Amino acid sequence: MPGIAFRSLTADDLDLLVTATLENLNWSAPRFDRDDVWARPEFRHYVEFDSARGDFGVVAQRGPDPVGVGWALFLPTERAGYGHVGDRTPEFSLWVAPRCRGEGLGRAIAERLLRAARDRDIAAVSLSVESGNTRARGLYLSLGFVDVAGRRDDGVMVWTAPGS
Q1: Domain residue ranges of the chain, discontinuous segments joined by +
Q2: What CATH class is the domain 4-160?
Q3: What is the spatial distance between Cα 108 and Cα 6, in angstroms, rounded to a whole number?
Q4: By its UniProt entry, which CDD domains does this protein fall under (predicted)?
Q5: How far is Cα 97 from Cα 19, in angstroms, rounded to an integer?
């Protein structure tokens, strides 16, 4: 991708994760604000990146500016995310800046994140995609994610590493 550099996500990327989480929550229309991300535990845990727990991610930058991020968090059952399927399966989130959508950047980030999962011997990655977000769902299906039995209405999907 011309002009795009990729790097690992770090704890210093907190503001990026807040922006990404907020925009993911507001994918169809403004519903929440930055205060909601911090005030609501079901949102806040998506910005609590902790590499010591095994969390990992990829940031796409155009020049000095982040224009996309994909991250996977090992959220425990007692603080489960919307796409939680188990403590040993990290939950994946993906965001691309609106001005960069339609360029294949989301796919490039997701492929790097899934490669990182394989490199870490992670057998599966889960996510949740809201009903109606057909563009995101189509991307996830094309990457090999499948609906979790009994959880399709919740939009829960899982990707399983080849050979797992």
Answers
A1: 4-160
A2: alpha beta
A3: 10
A4: NAT_SF (cd04301)
A5: 10
